[in-house]
Amino acid sequence: MFDYWNRLRTAQALDFGMILQETKRLFDQCPDVLRIYQNGIRHVSVDESQDLDEFQHGMLWYFWPPAHAFFVGDLRQSIYGFRKARPDLLRRLVTDSSHDPTRSFEIIQLQHNFRSGSRIVTAANTLIAHNSDKLAEPMIAALGNESGGIESGHIQAFAGRYIDLVGRIEGLRGVYQDREIAVIARKHAILRNLQAQMIESNVPCQRVGRSADATQVVEFSKIRAMMGLVLNRRDAVAVTLLSAELGLSAETLARTNHLSASQRLPIFDAYLQIAPNQIGNIIGYASPHGPAMPFIDQVARLIHSEDPDHLNRAVEFWLEQSIDRTIAEALESIATFDNDKGDDRQDIDAVTLITAHAAKGLEWPVVFILGANEGLMPSAQSIKAAVSNDPEAIEEERRLAYVAVTRGARYVGLMHLVDENEPSDEQSRFIEESGLQCVTEDITNAASIF
Fold first, then answer.
1. How far, in Å, CA of 41 to CA of 66, rounded?
2. pTM of the predicted model, to two decimals?
3. pLDDT tens, residue by residue, 184-214
């Protein structure tokens, strides 16, 4: 970890975590600076407060009090434990406020759900009630009632194969536009399998988060490193990553590092003095304000790749992100790009295939939740953690299922995936916990529902 920090400092760079750490260090070491900010900041508003990590949570104490604080959060939708989110901190904040008059506050329960029909809301409430946290009151459906009708919506669980789900979707296409239908799954792999089946069946679809296929390969990182060197010639990590492309042997790289250290040169400038090649010169002459697409076209042909498909996907992604942008602008757009939040979702008439994490905050009239299996939702990792006496892992998976269920307005179908290629064929506990049973009847065509 210290080596990572040292490399960032050498490159005169900060990652997001270090921005917070350096801000904290500034406030701790320079109280006069802190007072300037405290005098200027009167109100602190925190959205999605259930997803704060411990460090972010601690930064609030610099300003509250004396500033007034306003928190917006839903503990039932805390689904980012893998990013170190700590929903217990918000829970503790509420519990401890009664003992600290300087941080006491009023809780306003926003219970009404204006999206989902009453039957869907009832199932969601029944599911999340199995979690230990009881701070939030159950939702109240603003649409429909249990007696039926289109506004009451419908929710069911059923078992089937990928092709069976495609058939159900095809049955809805005369009732709903493709864009009004979504399939939510726990993992991209499940969605890829469904996407292949839908393409074969000529059903238009878009897989949100598909960019992960491009952004998680080394070829993507190499293009980013080349563009990054145009902006920051001190990036030693980028130079090391691009050793093959820059023609740097271990010996030449050592000489480059020595020249950079002894002459206090940016490492890329040191490289240009020792042994520049074609790709090095392209980077060296490029401007941060120059167009990104021609630069990517040039360097992409010179990248060393063992998998042409990976390279093609990475280049295609970068070109999509670089339309009408400079190199600096393209890098900035990627810096805030988030596969888990569905940043590659397009406004087209196609069935949306999306992970539960990326679906948070979105809604569709019709939602299918694919892979309601033990080992998929909840994940095998969370089940293993629960066996090791860590119930929070299962509770987060239940919150994730809750988020998925509440994306649907008129119909939600939880599908127990029965496929010989899937490792788990056991029905998810979340089906029964939602008050549902698997049925064989396909009600997605029923006029009374739609």
1. 9
2. 0.77
3. 999 888 998 999 999 999 999 998 876 666 7
